[in-house]
Amino acid sequence: MGGRAVSIGVCAVLAAVFAGAAAASPNVGFADDATKFADDGGAQLFDQLKGAGAVENRVAVYWDPADPGTIQEQDFLDRMLPVAAARGVRIVFSVYPKGAGTFSTDTDNRIAQFAAYLKLLAQTYPQVRTYVVLNEPNEAYFWAPQHDANGVIISAPIAERVLAAGYDALKSVDPSITVAGLGISPAANDQNSTSPVRFVDALGRAYRASGRKAPLMDELDLHIYPDNAKGQDDGTHYAWPQIGPGDLSRIKQAVWDAFAGTGQPVIQEPGASGPFLKLRIGEVGWQVGVLPALQTEYTGDENVQVTDEARQAAIYSAVVKEYGCDPSVTAVDFFHLIDDRELVHYQSGLLRIDGTARPAYAAVKSAIAAPCPKQKPWRHATIVLAASASLDTGGQPLGTGDLKLTLAAGEDVDVTVAILRVNGPISPGQADRALAGTARGMTVIGSGKTFIKGGDRIPVSFSGTLIPGTYVVAVRMTASMNSRRWTTAVSAPFTIGG
Q1: pLDDT in tens, 326-344
Q2: For residue 15, which of 257, 377, 273 has the smallest C-alpha distance?
Q3: How many CB atoms within 10 Å of residue 297?
Q4: Are 252 and 278 in contact (CB under 8 A)?
Q5: Quick check: 165 and 114 in contact, CB under 8 A?
Q6: Is the peptide bond before 336 cis (omega within 30 degrees of 0)?
Q7: How high is the pLDDT of residue 497?
Q8: How far is CA 107 from CA 104, 148, 159, in A?
Q9: DSSP 8-state code for residue 432
């Protein structure tokens, strides 16, 4: 894929918008272990789940490396699964190790044991058709360490091996099992955790280096939460490389950058041939303040900003319509169905702790029942995201000291800046050829390289002298996460000495 040109000082992107086919009814469920621990096997909660129009419940299944061949909490699973089946509720297993440092030691052996555990689960519970392998491996709470002493991401390359082994193990039991990967966290600090876009990039690099031809996953599981439930809604955007509630296209682009052209499918777009990777919103939730009358039913103290019940209902309705009607999304699982009693955990359920329904219950039910609107199909970007370059020559420049160039980009980019001597206006394509040393009639007088971190805006300084003549400044930005995406910008000609 090639870059596209923009003129310096003018940053405009024209995207064709096509009407997509109407999506099927959204598949909505919950991520709630309360069903696993309920004395009735989850019967009452499953009835309430179905009453809202939901179809699935995702439960956690832990793996203990100290007891690798024993199914954890098997008695609870054995009790719950028949109850779910009787009520027509699909169960999804999210399988991950108990300890964050599990794969940091005895790595090869533990990956093999974990894969064997997945195989044992699939053989024991053939009614479970979807497995989420790992949970937020870009967060130190679930996977440590994230980086080596030099700051290089080491969690993703090991996670790639775990996913590969898990995929092969589950498919060996039944090729029709759906393997979802990661349950990736939407935001991280890139210090003791790893932002989702960077994690997917590192995962793709490890996959390419491995030489593997088979996929790692059929679905990418993504978690979506607000940083501040009181101030953010379903359309909130986060700064790159995080994934905010309104940034679903960003994770799609990250997947394309990481895996396009490999054995791992990417997200569907018009004109492309399959197979395709699907997205699964494995957890999504806005915490609410508890009603004063129920305050004594909860324990501890709240530790985050919360919203109110009416606003939660509006957001949840929008979530169903936006995510659930996206044809690339297979399921949207709210976290939770019913509140956690401890305030330090999540009070994001459609049901309060006493089982009574919040307004979100009726809102979600109504949104599920409503027909999905037609969707705008997603297309991968071929240029640098949000690239801009602005050159001020100060009118009639006397030399390089009068040139003021400012650059910005919406993602990490590697940049080449050059002053070219020309006979007149040139196109960005001609500038590309000049930078490559293959153009006639243009001379590169001086050039330099720099790096822009996504979201930054930086000045570029010039030095040296220019003899009288006509010049342009050319800028080429290349996406650090995909060298097949670039943007070349070229200024209008300016004259020195004249």
Answers
A1: 999 999 999 999 999 999 9
A2: 377
A3: 13
A4: no
A5: yes
A6: yes
A7: 85
A8: 6, 15, 11
A9: H
| Cβ proximity of 380 and 252 under 8 Å | yes
- Assess whether pLDDT exceeds 90 at residue 321: yes
Cα(234)–Cα(319) distance, integer angstroms: 6
Cβ count within 10 A of residue 258 = 24
Backbone angles phi, psi at 309, to 5 degrees: -65, -40
Q: Of 324, 323, 343, whose CA–CA distance to 249 is shortest? A: 323
Report how far residue 397's alpha carbon sits from residue 386's, in angstroms, rounded to the nearest whole number: 29
Query: In this predicted structure, what is the pLDDT of residue 439?
Result: 84
Short-list 340, 230, 239, 323, CA closest to 284: 323
pLDDT digits (tens, 9 = 90+) for 36-70: 999 999 999 999 999 999 999 999 999 999 999 99
Calculate mean pLDDT across residues 130-149: 98
What is the DSSP-derived secondary structure letter of residue 440?
S
- Report the C-alpha gap between 332 and 30 in whole angstroms: 8
Six token digits for residue 366:
């109504």
Which residues have a Cβ under 8 Å from the Cβ of 248 and sit 6 or more positions away?
A: 279, 322, 323, 326, 329
Look at residue 364 and give its three-state secondary structure. Answer: helix
Domains of the chain, each with CATH number or no CATH: 19-369 (3.20.20.80), 388-496 (2.60.40.2550)
Whether 9 shows a pLDDT value over 60: the answer reads no
Peptide bond into 459 cis (omega under 30): no
Distance (Å, rounded) from C-alpha 414 to C-alpha 160?
Answer: 26
Structure tokens at 358: 């919040």
CA distance 452 to 447: 16
Counting Cβ atoms within 10 Å, is residue 106 exposed (0-12), middle (13-18) or buried (19+)? exposed
pLDDT tens for each residue of 435-461: 998 888 889 999 999 999 999 999 999
Pairs from 37-45 (Cβ < 8 Å, separation ≥ 24) = 37/76, 38/80, 40/83, 41/79, 41/80, 41/82, 41/83, 41/84, 42/80, 42/83, 42/84, 43/83, 43/87, 44/355, 45/337, 45/338
pLDDT over threshold 70, residue 20: no
Q: How far is CA 168 from the centre of its chain?
A: 24
> What is the rounded CA–CA span in Å between residue 167 and residue 243?
25
DSSP-assigned beta bridge partners for residue 31: 58
Strands 457-460 and 404-408: antiparallel
- The answer to whether 55 touches 21, Cβ cutoff 8 Å, is no
pLDDT confidence of residue 350: 98
